[in-house]
């Protein structure tokens, strides 16, 4: 299996523990590569970790399973950050800078009958991912949609995403206590 954007290597290590015969992890960040290698050693997992841009380090190779939790947060500009944490999440104005590249190249890296597991936000449109994969010959479907509270990065960008129509405005609900004089919680619904 191949894990793209491996970060700390959590997914790659889990795959190794689940019995994957061969596990390859790729990340662009030097630090991530170092940490993933360290984690593999600490947890005694056989994971081959490479530094590079998406599929570049595995050119010409095919896998039975490709996983990716790539950067997908819509950002102010199309310039992708080259350093630090923002590289983990910024993905151009529509959040699809890396997703589109993964969709376009996936077919060339899957074995017959192989699978791609890709996670991203509703803000960068799963239907576009499905169509883009189909255009390159990969039949895809949305397996699961999970609603989770916005994390700090998405919360900080909520106004930007709303102004671009990428997400619905966040409803703010107010709990009305039966005793109007009693203090009540103020809830914010998660998207
Ligand atoms: C959202 S994090 C995911 C980390 C880990 N897979 C996880 O699920 O916890 C995205 C990762 O993609 C890496 N990344 C960003 N651009 C990349 C690129 N062009 N090629 C490979 N990895 C990239 C970042 O360094 C970061 O580690």
Verbal overview:
The protein is of the alpha/beta class. The chain has one domain (2-148): Rossmann fold, CATH 3.40.50. It has helices at 10-17, 30-42, 86-89, 97-106, 126-135, 152-156, 158-163, and strands at 2-4, 23-27, 47-51, 63-68, 110-118, 172-174, 186-188. Strands 3-2-1-4-5 form a 5-stranded parallel β-sheet, covered by helices on one side. A two-stranded antiparallel sheet has the order 6-7. Strand 1, helix 1 and strand 2 (23-27) form a beta-alpha-beta unit. S-adenosylmethionine is lined by residues 4-7, 10-11, 26-29, 32, 53-54, 69-71, 87-88, 98.
Roughly how much helix do the residues carry, as a percent range? 25-40%
Q: Can you tell me the CATH topology?
A: Rossmann fold
Distance between the termini: 32 Å
Class derived from helix and strand content: alpha/beta
């Amino acid at each position: 299996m191949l894990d793209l954007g491996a970060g700390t290597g959590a997914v790659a290590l889990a795959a190794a523990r689940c019995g994957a015969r061969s596990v390859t992890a790729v990340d662009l960040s030097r630090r991530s590569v170092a940490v993933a290698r360290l984690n593999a050693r600490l947890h005694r997992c056989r994971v081959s970790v490479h530094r590079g841009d998406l599929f570049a380090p595995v050119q010409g190779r095919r896998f039975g399973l490709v996983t990716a939790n790539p950067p997908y947060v819509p950002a102010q500009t199309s310039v992708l950050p080259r350093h630090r944490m923002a590289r983990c999440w910024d993905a151009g104005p529509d959040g699809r800078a890396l997703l589109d590249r993964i969709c376009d190249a996936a077919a060339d890296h899957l074995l017959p009958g192989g699978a791609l597991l890709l996670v991203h936000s509703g803000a960068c449109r799963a239907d576009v991912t499905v169509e883009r994969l189909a255009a390159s010959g990969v039949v895809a479907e949305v397996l699961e949609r999970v609603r989770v509270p916005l994390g700090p990065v998405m919360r900080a960008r909520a106004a930007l995403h709303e102004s671009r129509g990428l997400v619905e405005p966040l409803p703010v609900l107010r709990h009305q206590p039966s005793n109007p004089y009693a203090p009540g919680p103020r809830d914010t619904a998660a998207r």
